[in-house]
From TrEMBL:
One of its GO terms (biological process) is DNA-templated transcription initiation. This is RNA polymerase sigma-70 factor, ECF subfamily. Pfam families: Sigma70_r2, Sigma70_r4_2. The lineage of its organism: Bacteria, Bacillati, Bacillota, Tissierellia, Tissierellales. Keywords: Sigma factor, Transcription, Transcription regulation. Belongs to the sigma-70 factor family. ECF subfamily. It comes from Tissierella praeacuta DSM 18095. GO terms for molecular function: DNA binding; sigma factor activity.
Amino acid sequence: MIIYLSIIESEEDKSKFEQLYITYKQTMFYVANRILRDKYLSEDVVHQAFLRIIDNLNKIDKIDCHKTKGFIVIIVEHIAIDFYRKRKHENSISFDEVGIYIEDVKNKSKFILNEIEEAILKLPINYSIVLRLKYSQGYTNKEISEILRISEENVRQRLVRGRNKLTESLSEGSEKSYE
């Protein structure tokens, strides 16, 4: 943690980061390990996530709230999936393993409030992450592009495609319920 604190300038931000570190380190490791199933890579993901959190520390108001936890989990998921894809190119591993994680989140999450959120979790992860950051967490396209380190145009495209897929998914679900 000393390495992270040396990067942060203000004492207030250092205190905020310490609280984040203590509160979410285990959760972050769990999320990364559920995707990667590799203890050492998961530790690398958590490290990268903490560095990204430091870059976005000004976006975190309250430490122990649903929005902060969601923000951190999305960052870890995104980085873990990037690691997974890099490893996939090196080894030939099935992408279905990531699907197991998403199903586990869908089945065990306390935060699925309705069928729209459930449908969002069923979307491809690129669309799901952007939609969740935009509509659940309330970030702007510019903030999302900074968090995910993609262009604003890419964010806009993912939002459009994600909404279209979500609309298709929800309309298919409503047709099935009327049959």
